Amino acid sequence: MTGATGYNFAYLDEQTKRMIRRAILKAVAIPGYQVPFGSREMPLPYGWGTGGIQVTAAVIGPDDRLKVIDQGADDTTNAVSIRRFFARTAGVATTERTTEATVIQTRHRIPETPLVEGQILVYQVPIPEPLRWLEPRETETRKMHALADYGAMHVKLYEDIARFGRIATTYDYPVLVNGRYLMRPSPIPKFDNPKMHMNPALQLFGAGREKRIYAVPPYTAVKSLDFEDHPFEVQRWDQACAICGSADSFLDEVVTDDRGGRMYVCSDTDHCTSQQTRKEAAE
Amino acid sequence: MTTADTLLPGLPDPVIDSQRVFRVVLDAMARPGTLVDLPLSLKVPAPLDPATAAVALALADVDTRLWLDGAVGADAVRAYLRFHCGCPLTEGPAAADFAIVVDPQAMPPLAAFNAGSDEFPDSSTTVIVQVPTLDGGEPWTFTGPGIRDRVRLAVAGLPPAFRGWVAENHAGFPRGVDLIFTSGTRLAALPRSARLEG
Amino acid sequence: MYVAVKGGETAIDNAHRLMAEERRGDPAVPELGLDQIMEQLGLAVDRVMTEGSIHDRELAALAIKQAQGDLVEAIFLLRAYRTTLPRFGGSEPIDTAAMAIRRRISAAFKDLPGGQVLGPTYDYTHRLLDFALAAGAEPEAAVRAGHPLAERMPRVADVLGQEGLIERNPPGNDEPPGDLTRQPLSLPAGRDLRLQNLARGDEGFLLALAYSSQRGYGNTHPFAGEIRLGAVAVEFVPEELGFPIEIGEITVTECQMVNQFKGSKEVPAQFTRGYGLSFGQSERKAMAMALVDRSLRAGELGEEAANPSQDEEFVLAHSDNVEASGFVQHLKLPHYVDFQSELELIRRLRAATPDRETAE
After folding, report:
1. Domains, in order of start, for chain B
2. Is the ipTM beyond the 0.90 threshold?
């Protein structure tokens, strides 16, 4: 069952997979809580998706179809590299279509196409601790989570409002899961935050270097922190995608010349392609 | 004494079958109260049901302490689990990472198992409770993460106090044990996050 | 029509090929053999084995060759390989008192049983570039001592211990030592995990921390009680035998720092210990490790712990160069989406407040 000779299915040995699987089950049972796990040294560098890769390796099987995206795109170098890793070590089928995938590993985006029941979204997480910039000590933040003492985060967001007139956090925007745990959604733009709420898919988060796994089960409340007088809002663009014409997707700004020329295109390449196909079919 | 010769085999393909079993357990844990089917057939020593044994084989190993209730304590079962999982057995339910109950009527209250701490709620016991059937008992309704609206679960063969234990277990969130009910080749999970509504 | 940039498998493959070409360099120059690296770059091999957590000179040499001499990259290669190795169990503790000594010095006693053994060292070389070496001159043969070294050389810490002047080794428990490569670190860490972390830790990081502790950021009043280098036997107890068998010999450097301690309410004045151990000959590493180990014991000894080298969480969380290197360099990965979010915010903030800079 091996793709690359000499290594086990999906690279990790069985004992490691079991350890990760046990951590994932506990993570699902305690939504938003970061489960410590014995993260292994992977053949890819820390910070480059080792947490997501370990979660995917523990979850994936021969019946799965894997999609890997980075910044919403299937063809960025790191996404290509990770997809190849699994094609090689697990011989697993891959796809670029969100609708065809059973497991989607992502860095920094949630696909535009709504996910469905049975799909698993695996996030690569650099820093899992939402309170880290407020309190660098793990011993302290652990206590804060135990007591659900999240006042410091509210103060920080409120200071933003006092200073800038708005909350100046645009990505990795903190959320409260199931009304209990403060959670970092990984550096997705806050544009994607609402997609986490009551999502039919299972969302798993892996932080390899920091050795933490956490989860949001399907149909779970995920609330972006806000205030009554400053409700949470997402980014909007005045433009539509220059390629597919999408007006409601997250757009990347592309610099076209050195005289201020800009164009905007979908960050989600699969969404952009399917929108184009739909548009062409309609014409 | 049971020797390796008389032992029943474990999962036919340990790598792929462990993954398949894990995925149904994950699916069950992510959708509390939903019945899922074991994706393989397995010959297991009595009194274990295939689903009970499969969960243990897929998840327990030398790094996890296993507690078995009196009814499961047959030598054949101990030898089977020790051989295939390599897991140390523990006498105290509070020290267990996994517990297997095959006689729920005689089981200790859920509070006797490890509920974890507020700092490390993940260190709690996962209790596998084998029951006669998963859909013939008194229906209980649950809400919570993983449940779209509400879900009804009608596990049979549980002691009368069990309902109270489940409510109590949830009330201690984030501390608490997580339950996996098994019967024949089916299973359903009830993580501590599930709230008993009625 | 705009076409989005594709990273593409071809680009990645070609980048790897280019890299391999660069590594090989001018094909007219003979290729480095692993034996040459093992024999002639032995200290690099030692460092890679120590921080890579595998004692295997040939694998370390391969890693160094493959990494083009980038030792942190070589350490990473070795660590990633290590993950895939099955684990048979733990060896018995090595006995450094029974070491076959090649070098042994004490800065605390002028002479001691077994004597000072200078051994191979750069310590007293004049750091003059040796152009004869560039010309390929054969080294002069060293004159061996006329008599063999003492069979047993007591460790300085043990000598002090006989008089009760140094603390007993901090009480351990009977639990087998933890293993950071299998369990995530939980704080506060026991000394077993701290020492494992430091042994795997980046030499440069530990060196800087140790240095800071000598410059007033948490003085530990250290004396190099003893540094010894030599071969020790590694023993293993196979389950089926039940008694230890020798499975090989490894060379290690051990440093016992002896530190002044004025005592506390509970404990009389005595010397305390800091411990360092590394594979092969890595004295800088072993000494830095011993200083940081002692610094990290500040809390346990009731000393004020206000400096970086005394801060367990700070030190242990940042000592690993495989983690650090990966995370620092991950900034090379695309961050288009986050940057786009920030761009939009900055424009909005500026639009909301017609500010000073743009007004000029």
Report:
1. 3-196 (3.40.50.11310)
2. yes
